[in-house]
Every structure is written in structure tokens, then in C-alpha cells.
Amino acid sequence: MTTSVPEDLKTPYVFLGRSGLKVSNICLGTGTFGESRTGRPGQTDEQASHELINRFVEWGGNFLDTADIYGSGLSETIVGKWLETQHRDKFVIGTKVRGNMGTQENVNNVGLSRRHITKSIDRSLQRLHTDFVDLYQAHQFDPATPLEETFRTFDDLVRGGKVRYIGVSNFNGWQMERVVNTARTLGINPIISLQQQYSLVCRESEFEAFQVCKSAGIGVLPYSPLKWGLLAGKVKRGVQPSDGRLGWAAQQGGRGNQFTDKTFDIVEAAETIAKTRGRTTAQVSLRWLLQRDVVSSVIIGATKLAQLDDNMAANGWSLTPEEMKQLDDVSAPVTTYPYDRQRLNGDRFNPAIKDSHVKSTST
Q1: pLDDT tens for residues 54-93?
Q2: What separation in angstroms does the CA of 46 have from each of 30, 63, 83, 96?
């Protein structure tokens, strides 16, 4: 049985990037909703998924993230069945497009072409039981489609009312810069967000992609903030996981390179701070993200109410500057050429130049 959430612990609302859209600073990711089509563990059925959303709302959450490819449409369907019982305008719904949602025989059922996007948005709207999506995101870069085609199509969807804002996911630095410049050149609606894997053990996007975000006012939406439970302290140094998502991933041959001494130095540093502050390791790991200046909202996943409650309790308190620095230092990514040349900038920082803040690759 869950307890009521005190008002002072509920999630605050922040602007998403430079837009006027306000979202809860924690977003509920729905990639675990629906029966797994790949054997991935930790999926939730419709009833459990709806219970998780309801509890998230009790915490003050108003931002849900999904994608057409999650469960081959099943995640969107589960969210849609819940959404049709709610006041639609209270919630911000984000979904994504790019993946193959049909059979391999249909060669046009994948990518970011005008044809695929316009077909995909209609199907997503049907599954979500809504006539508009708040945030429509390119799930990954598509090298086969001109950016002009993709983002003119997104702009048309905004102008037509099917989409309110647009964003991207899993884009690297040069791709982000091209997207920003394409929107400026064409005079079309710019992106407001970058959904990216980001955590204490995955900080490489700070080198370039996030610098573009800072310069252009794009909000970052970190996903996998706990690296499938690794940053919650679920795995100990020298122990190979055998169950859960980390165990499944290790068996599939993926994510095995994350079980390094550096990774466990990071986890143990977070654990030490957690014990000192009377918090959990997961809360410390999430809190570090919430205090990063480029982050708008952190996307969490949950399969159990207790897990959701623990993650949501990352709000209502703060890490000290000393604790932030400790975590910054232990998790700093390896700085290789040419990024190591940034240190030669020294104190050459001009606040009148908005790109001048790009003076460090670790902030």
C-alpha cells in the first residue's frame, strides 16, 4: 500500500529547453510497458503500467515518454488507454519515429522520410488516443534522408496541429549542429530537446552534442540515468550479473564493457555519499543529473511502485557543491585529442559570446 506524497516532495516543473513548455523535472519512460518481443526482462502488463503512471502523477509528474517502436506499438497503446481516462491538457506526451514498424517487405516503413513520418504520426496518434503529440522526436539520425526533408515534414506537422514541439534522440555533435543550422536556414520550427543516454558512467555527449544544446537553448532529456540499475548499486565489483536487465544484456553480449574498475569507483563514490546523506545510491545518481545545467528532465524507468517511489525521491534535496565535484571528478570521461586542447583556452571566457562557455569538456 502506497502512502500519499507530501506537497514539498513533489516534482518541480521546469521549462523544456528554451521553449515555453513546462514539464516535471522527472519524466516517466514507458519502454518497459507491454509484453517483451525480444525476451528482455522487467516488462510490465497494462494494469501494472497504469498503476505506475498513476503513482507518478501522485508525485506531480506530468511528462510521459514513449516511442512507436517500444513493444511494436504496445507501449503507446497502453499509454493511450490510460490517457483517454484523463484530462489530456494536464499531461505532456512525447513519442518518437524512425524505427521499422512493419514487415521487411515494405522498404519505406523505416527512417525519417516524409512518407514514413506522416504515416507514423497518424498511427501513433491512434494508439495514444489523442489528436496531438506534445513532443515528437526523431529516434535516431537517418543518413539516407536529407535533413531538409525530415525537418520540413516536422514543421508541417507543427503547423497542422498534430505536433506541438519537435526534438531528436541519439544524435551526435555534428548532427546536432546540422539540425540547428538547417532550422535557421529554412526558417522553420527549431528542435527544443535532445534525448540522450546520459549518466555518471556515460558522459561522452558532453564533448560536443551538449555544447550545441547549451549554445542553441536545447534541453537535454537523459535516458538510462541508472544504466539499468548499475548506478543503483545492484552490481558489486567483481560480480558478473546473472539476472535482471543487466544480466540479460551481459548474456546478449551487450554492455559488458561497463563493468570496469572506473565504473565501480563511481558507484562506490555514490554509495558513500548516499550513506552520509541518508539516501539511496540511485537517488544520488539521479540527483547528480538533476543538478546538471544542461538537463531539463530526467527520464526514469520503473517496473515496481517501490522502485518508482525511490527514484522520485531524488527531488526535495540537493547535493552540495563538494559532493557534485566529487562525482564530477570520479566520473570524468577520458579527454582525448582534440578535446584536450580546450584547456589551452585558460581564462579566455567572454560572457557576451554565447558560445564562449564552451571552455571545458566536462561541464
Answers
A1: 999 999 999 999 999 999 999 999 999 999 999 999 999 9
A2: 11, 18, 13, 20
What span, in angstroms and rounded, lies between the C-alpha atoms of 53 and 28?
Answer: 8
Do residues 282 and 232 touch, judged by C-beta distance below 8 A?
yes
DSSP H helices in 279-360: 281-290, 305-312, 321-331
Instruction: Give the residues across from 193 on adjacent strands.
Output: 167, 219
Could you tell me the CA-to-CA distances from 145 to 10, 11, 190 in Å, in that order?
42, 39, 18
CA angle 176–179–182, rounded 5-degree value: 150
Question: Which among 70, 136, 165, 223 is annotated as catalytic?
Answer: 70
Residue type, 16: L
Any idea which architecture 12-233+287-318 has in CATH? Alpha-Beta Barrel (3.20)
Nearest alpha carbon to residue 270 among 258, 252, 296, 288? 288
Dihedral, CA of residue 118, residue 120, residue 121 and residue 127, to nearest 10: 150
* Prediction pTM value: 0.93
How far is residue 202's CA from residue 292's CA, in Å, rounded to a whole number? 14
Q: How far apart are CA 30 and CA 299, in angstroms?
A: 9
Print the SS3 string covering 228-288. Answer: CCHHHCCCCCCCCCCCHHHHHHHHHCCCHHHCCHHHHHHHHHHHHHHHHHCCCHHHHHHHH
339 as an active site residue: the answer is no
